[in-house]
């Protein structure tokens, strides 16, 4: 159960679809409860019933205000809660895997389902409170009740597991077809700069951009390529300097080529959100063997992985000079940058490739079903 599913291209849609299609290929009987919208197109009208790769897709009705305003988004959530609740009731004897879009859907799933597994992509209302949005205390009580009632809760990292009962850590993953592409170097060489830094995915409120914008102005000879969209896209565009380029989301079949077309990738997270969110773009960067430049807390989930496996660099939010020096150092030592990428690719294959997560998920679901 997730608000977005195939053929939508958003991050949670892709991983939900990947898992569902894998389970169906392994003989599980799988259905997806989702909306009729796309992440970047609230007005989309996907078919109410569909089948893809052996998965039965149930697209329930909801309003279509989109993500532009808080009131409209709240109405979209409320109408989806109601429709999804009745859809889950009709699947009451199944194991329900409830993701966290929209927030608090776990509460409705806990009432509707006998066998609930929560797939916690972020912790609400803590995320909202960290971003300055006040939330009534009873929301956290309801969320905690739904987590305790579940047969299991899958979380994205050790810091998140410390906050969630019955937690099993299963990291997210990148597209199974992602791999380094040699073509990326040729595309880069044709660009305006000899060194290119990329940011790919959602430019949301959880991500820190002031440090990136500062480094962009300090490094006019470095090209910054932003691929994707999100709540902060227009603000970043307005503040960006002439060495920035903006591209729309890439189709999955071109993702390896697009991610490989830069020398290093930025991943950012507000320090206050550590333990509440793990940016999924991290895994795609590892998959294409590019160094990760993480702007976030030094003791955070991704910072620990990067430090242990030496697959990138970590910079504290607000440290514009530190980020500028890190980018300049990678540009000056392409051999070390390439070695970081190779170490990241090896880590991805050993720990974060889809087959590792799929095997762990089957164990969780077998236990929940028994």
Descriptive overview:
The chain has 370 residues and is an alpha/beta fold. The protein folds into two domains: 11-173 and 354-369, Glycogen Phosphorylase B (Rossmann fold, 3-Layer(aba) Sandwich); 183-352, Glycogen Phosphorylase B (Rossmann fold, 3-Layer(aba) Sandwich), CATH 3.40.50.2000. It has 15 helices and 13 strands. The protein has helices spanning 11-25, 70-89, 105-112, 126-130, 137-149, 158-161, 183-189, 210-218, 233-239, 255-260, 281-287, 301-309, 320-332, 334-352, 354-369; strands at residues 31-35, 49-52, 55-60, 95-98, 115-119, 152-155, 167-169, 196-202, 223-229, 244-247, 264-268, 292-295, 312-315. The strands form three sheets. It has a six-stranded parallel sheet, sandwiched between helices. Helix 11 (281-287) links the parallel strand 11 (264-268) and strand 12. The radius of gyration is 20 Å and the shape is globular. It starts with 10 loop residues before the first helix and ends with a helix. Mean pLDDT is 94; it is low at 184-193.
């Amino acid at each position: 159960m997730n608000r977005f599913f195939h053929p939508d291209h958003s991050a949670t849609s892709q991983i939900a679809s990947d898992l569902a299609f894998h389970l169906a290929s392994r003989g599980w009987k799988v259905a997806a409860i989702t909306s009729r919208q796309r992440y970047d197109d609230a007005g989309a009208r996907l078919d109410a019933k569909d089948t893809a790769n052996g998965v039965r897709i149930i697209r329930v009705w909801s309003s279509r205000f989109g993500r532009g305003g808080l009131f409209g988004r709240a109405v979209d959530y409320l109408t989806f809660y109601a429709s999804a609740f009745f859809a889950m009731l009709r699947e009451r004897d199944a194991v329900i895997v409830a993701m966290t879009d929209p927030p608090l859907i776990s509460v409705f799933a806990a009432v509707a389902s006998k066998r609930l597994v929560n797939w916690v992509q972020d912790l609400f209302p803590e995320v909202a409170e960290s971003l300055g949005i006040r939330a009534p205390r009873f929301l956290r009580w309801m969320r905690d009740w739904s987590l305790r009632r579940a047969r299991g809760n899958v979380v994205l990292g050790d810091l998140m597991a410390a906050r969630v009962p019955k937690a099993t850590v299963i990291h997210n993953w990148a597209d199974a077809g992602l791999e380094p592409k040699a073509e990326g170097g040729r595309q880069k060489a044709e660009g305006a700069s000899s060194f290119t830094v990329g940011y790919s995915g959602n430019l949301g409120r959880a991500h820190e951009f002031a440090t990136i914008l500062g480094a962009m102005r300090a490094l006019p000879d470095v090209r910054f390529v932003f691929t994707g969209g999100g709540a902060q896209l227009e603000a970043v565009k307005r503040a960006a300097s002439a060495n920035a380029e903006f591209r729309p989301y890439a189709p999955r079949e071109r993702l390896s080529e697009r991610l490989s077309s830069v020398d290093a990738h930025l991943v950012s997270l507000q320090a206050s959100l550590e333990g509440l969110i793990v940016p999924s773009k991290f895994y795609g960067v590892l998959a294409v063997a590019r160094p990760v430049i993480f702007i976030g807390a030094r003791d955070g989930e991704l910072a620990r992985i990067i430090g242990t496996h030496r697959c990138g660099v970590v910079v504290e939010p607000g440290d514009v000079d530190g980020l500028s020096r890190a980018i300049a150092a990678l540009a000056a030592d392409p051999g070390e940058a390439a070695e970081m990428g190779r170490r990241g690719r090896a880590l991805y294959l050993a720990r974060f490739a889809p087959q590792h997560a799929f095997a762990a998920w089957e164990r969780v679901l077998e236990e929940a079903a028994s």
